[in-house]
Amino acid sequence: MQMPDAPRVLTDLAPLLAKPHVFVEIGCGPSKKPNAIGIDVLALPGVDVVCDVNQGLPFLPDASVDRIEAVHVFEHLSDLETVLREVTRVLKPTGECHLRVPYFANPHYYSDYTHKTPWGLYTLGYFCKDGWPYRRKVPNFYNNVRLRVISQKLVFSSMFLLPKLLKKLVQAVVNLHPLMQEFYEESLCWNLPASEMKIVIAPSKP
Q1: What's the pLDDT tens digit per position in 55-83?
Q2: Cα dist from 9 to 12, 47, 62, 80, 160, whole Å
Q3: How would DSSP label each residue in 140-164?
Q4: This prediction's pTM
Q5: Contact, 115 vs 125, CB < 8 A?
Q6: DSSP per residue over 47-69, as a string?
Q7: CB neighbours (10 Å) of residue 191?
Q8: What local confidence, expressed as pLDDT, does residue 84 receive?
Q9: Which of 33, 46, 86, 152 has the fewest Cβ atoms within 10 angstroms?
Q10: Backbone angles phi, psi at 102, to 5 degrees
Q11: What residues contact residue 203 under an 8 Å CB cut-off, 6+ apart?
């Protein structure tokens, strides 16, 4: 896919940014959510800004956004550090970014050639400066991104009925506590792979 060289703002963003609740949807496709500022690499119906988010979000002011959503987008990024830095820049101190990404052990993750960034429990640890919920620590001093992890949940699903029911039970148990998630990822993830992760992050507290 040919990526845009520079952002193209197709809609006057000023009225949208002036609203009491500013909502940005990254990778909105042709079905943008109501009242969102829609960002995509293609000029599809409803898209407000055509851009490659790997290059940043220069059309959004600092601390201007209440909520960012990206569903199955961040696994396609080639520059996760830049995008996370921009996400924390544009979010208000009370803002949140809600992500859904495929889990790295999911066969649908590693069979898709467009996927560039694998996601597991510790992916965000390299950027998290406070609020890290896990026992295992990873180096977070190689970048200046400042975020905190509010929640991470593993989601299990199947196209087959019986495995789907079993996996829903596993999902409930695994997500009981961060230690359960860590035990699962260390010992069970390749035998019973989760499908995706639901993640909520926010800027680090001052």
Answers
A1: 999 999 999 999 999 999 999 999 999 99
A2: 7, 9, 17, 22, 43
A3: --SS---EEEEEEEEE---SSHHHH
A4: 0.95
A5: no
A6: -SEE--GGG--TTS-TT-EEEEE
A7: 7
A8: 98
A9: 33
A10: -70, 145
A11: 88, 91, 93, 95, 146, 147, 148
Task: Give residue limits of the domains in the chain.
Answer: 61-203
Q: If you classify domain 61-203 with CATH, what class do you get?
A: alpha beta
User: 146-162 burial, b for 16+ CB within 10 Å, e for fewer?
Assistant: bbbbeebebbbeeeeee
Position 3 scores a pLDDT of: 78
Distance CA(47)–CA(11), nearest Å, equals 8
Give the N- to C-terminal CA distance of the chain in Å, as an integer.
Answer: 39
CA atoms within 13 A on the CB side of 63: 5
Round the average pLDDT of the chain to a whole number and report it: 96
Which residues, in sequence order, are bridge partners of residue 38?
25
